[in-house]
Specification:
This protein has a domain of 159 residues: P-loop containing nucleotide triphosphate hydrolases (Rossmann fold), CATH 3.40.50. Helices cover 47% and strands 16% of the residues. It has eight helices and eight strands; from the N terminus they run βαβαααβαβαβββαβα. Strands 2-3-1-4-8 form a five-stranded parallel β-sheet. Strands 6-5-7 form a three-stranded antiparallel β-sheet, with no helix packed on it. β5 and β6 form a beta hairpin. α2 packs across α3. The structure holds BIS(adenosine)-5'-pentaphosphate and magnesium ion (MG).
Length: 229
Amino acid sequence: MNRDIFIFLGPPGSGKGSLSQRCVEKLGWQQLSTGNLCRDHIARETEIGTQIDFFIKSGKLISDSLILGMVQEWLAEKAAQGSQGSVIFDGFPRAVSQAHALHELLAEFKDMQLYPIRLVLSDEEVIYRLLARSICQNNSCQRVYSLHKQSAHQPAQEMICDECGSPLVRRFDDEETAIHERLRSHHEHEQSLLDFYHEVGQPVVELNARAPLNEVYNELITKIGHPRE
Ligand code: AP5
Ligand code: MG
């Protein structure tokens, strides 16, 4: 398997999912969002879904073992399909213990190159964005929108997904208490993750996530030296 792996690090609401969508559409990359996988488990009421429901709703991190299991399962499924090409890890790893585990997991794949990408956004902007986010309720889609009137990310039709026509819903963890917990957890782990990549000699590319999405995308492409589409 020959893959570039882009690790999207950044606070909740910094645009990891939106930028992933853009890269999937323009570059044909694949997105592995551990958050999307968790929400899918909850919606399907699997055993894992029942275990993680409370944690997700309150904005707390899920145990490493469950998250790593989901990541391994996803990678094995893609390998079995013979799928190739670049992959975005959206929201994984988000603790240094997960970064270590990923490093070990990928050590056997000599032809996989990791690119940590850090989306930088203030807490104030995170809260402003998340209080007006909606997502597609279809779990195999989960496309992200904004309900802010002046946003470029509004759906064409009110509360309907442009992509698959399903209704849009608000995320259950996009309320103030859970947002504050997610931000707290992000701040708790961010520096140790950055230190980890520094120690293993992996430069972290920083993006100004405050800019419009097109500019964030262009900054990514320029900094990693990839053709635009
Ligand atoms: P996850 O789903 O990953 O949530 P998150 O990290 O909190 O990030 P978000 O999805 O909220 O934000 P985003 O950065 O994707 O922003 P988005 O593109 O949507 O994880 C959820 C939960 O799952 C965690 O709390 C945890 O419980 C669990 N979990 C997941 N991974 C885990 C792990 N590895 N370990 C343990 N637990 C884990 O954009 C937000 C809004 O901004 C949208 O409205 C969008 O339209 C708008 N927007 C985006 N970009 C721009 C822009 N450039 N300008 C203006 N608006 C923009
Ligand atoms: Mg997301």
